[in-house]
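Re: that chain you flagged

S.,

Sorry for the slow reply, it's been a week of failed gels. I finally had a moment to sit down with the sequence you sent. For the record, here it is as I used it:
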Amino acid sequence: MAQETKEIEFEAALKRLETIVGDLEGGDLSLEEALKRYEEGVRMADVCSKRLSEAEKRVEVLMKTAQGKFKTEPFEGSGEEPPKGKKRR
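Prediction finished late last night. Pasting the structure tokens below so you have them in one place:
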């Protein structure tokens, strides 16, 4: 693999994972080659999962306060708890 998994961008990892899945579904690989591709696919899936998790943590929703000012709040899907007294929708 030319790039270390730490350096691979999400889109590149996803594209490689899709290629690997297609190769494995084709059924034309030897057992040894299928295992190698499967292992690489697991690494690519891990890269994608980590990148999505990182992105989710960074996403913030811009909210307008009652005073007309803007503030940021964590994205509801981030797993962070809402401030006390505020319920999630």
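What I noticed first: The first strand starts at residue 60 and ends at 64.

Talk soon,
D.
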